[in-house]
Amino acid sequence: MSSSFPTPKGVSEYVPPRADLFYAIRAAFAEQARLAGYGYLELAVFEDTNLFRRGVGESTDVVSKEMYTFEDRGGRSLTLRPEFTAGVLRSVLANGLHKQGALPVKVWTTGPAFRAERPQQGRYRQFYQLDLEAIGSDDPRVDAETIAIASRWYRSLGLTQIRLMLNSLGCRECRPAYRALLQEFLRGLDLDEPTRERIEINPLRVLDDKRPEVREQVAKAPLMADHLCDACQAHHDRVRELLADLGIEWEDSPTLVRGLDYYTRTTYEFEHPLLGAQSAIGGGGRYDGLSEDIGGPALPGIGFGLGLDRTILALEAEGTGFAAAPRCEVFGVALGEPAERRLFTMIDELRGAGVAADMAYGGKKLKGAMKDADRSGARYALILGERDIAAGSVQLKDLAGGDQTAVPLTELTATLKERLSR
Ligand code: HAM
After folding, report:
1. What fold is seen in the domain 330-420?
2. DSSP 111-157
3. Is the pTM of this model over 0.85?
4. Does the domain spanning 18-174+228-318 belong to CATH 3.30.930.10?
5. Which residues of the chain have pLDDT under 50?
6. What was the pLDDT predicted at 1?
């Protein structure tokens, strides 16, 4: 029987063995981030509510409808982070990282984020992201670098069906004129009231509407891509050249707008075709004005957030075979009290030598202990009885093949390491 408390609604919890996979894909990302020179940041889980209002933007669904906001005992309004970028930038500025070394400041972080959305497969209220940011450079190479890091991580997991959608959202010079042009176009369409309101608040989001009747009408809408200023066009062309140099495939997606207000210039999204309605597996882009928006100096930045929950779903859907390192390679089975005592130290020694090892507890008889060995997922059982101790050896049983051999105790670690590496 479970307790009288269910798991909170919309929380994606991970328990073993799935959580081992969750941890392993995070570790694989940590390695990619390290190889590209990104330092790890452990970030606040809640922030001053105004950071998200000013940073992410009042007109976004995330801020206007989905934030978990509460008042603390001192009467301050705090919000559980709905995303990482605003908090990462706040932390970089608060800790003066932008003054300490060469720019860009390169950092990554991970953990839960919170959005009060309607939960469904792939969409949760507490979900997990890998977030990586490069702050303080407007070099298009940094844009391409972030994309390359994410792509290499997806590839390292064995995912082959990910598509990269790319767009430019222009800058604070060229976007206002385009925005006005788009509004004029959209006001002439036959749209429902909420969509009409959206035209006034956040017209670019209308381009992102998934409903066929809306899609059909906006198909002829003016596109940002055709109204970029010269500097934004040059930046965008350069990013595409660099991606081509790196051998990264992408699709130009002129209606990709992203749901957060801080984006400028390069925006991108990784999609996975097997994830249904929640196909956005990761997304990112440039935010060249965000630092000033939150009261900091001019510091252009770019980064991404990759959804860990959706990445796990994609791995399961593709069946890539990517797996966490086994939690148990060798399982000890002791026959009688003296053997149990000896085996306990042997298991500990194996762990010290880097072999994942476990054993049956609770004085189990042979049959019960062998059942535990099978359940453990181990490749080998290590069976020790009094006669083995006397002979200075232990029985090594291949749990899949069934054959069993006596191995001298002095050679056990070397024998096991050799066999496990086969
Ligand atoms: P985002 O597109 O809002 O961007 O989120 C990034 C990824 O987080 C999404 O592509 C998706 O995989 C995952 N995600 C978002 N909401 C949920 C949810 N409710 N349940 C499960 N997964 C979800 C950002 O958050 C930006 N801060 C990314 C960024 C970093 N841009 C620049 N730097």
Report:
1. Rossmann fold (3.40.50)
2. EEEE-----BTTB-SEEEEEEEEEES---HHHHHHHHHHHHHHHHHT
3. yes
4. yes
5. none
6. 61
* Beta pairing class for 357-359 and 330-334: parallel
Longest dimension (CA), the chain: 92
Domain ranges of the chain: 18-174+228-318, 330-420
Work out the number of other CB atoms within 10 angstroms of the CB of residue 355: 18
Nearest CA to ligand 1 atom 26: 305
Count other C-beta atoms under 10 Å from residue 2's C-beta.
6
Own/partner long-range contacts of 400-407 (Cβ < 8 Å, ≥24 apart) = none
Q: Is-contact 235 265, C-beta < 8 A?
A: yes
Lookup: tokens for 320:
């890539």
The pLDDT value recorded for residue 320 is 94
Of the candidates 83, 78, 84, 82, the residue with the CA atom closest to the CA atom of residue 41: 84
Ligand 1 binding pocket (C-beta < 6 A) is 83-85, 115, 117, 123-124, 127, 129, 131, 133, 259-260, 280-285, 303-305, 307, 309-310
Sign for the CA dihedral angle at 246, 250, 254, 256 comes to negative
Question: Could you tell me if 304 and 283 are in contact, meaning their C-beta atoms sit under 8 angstroms apart?
Answer: yes
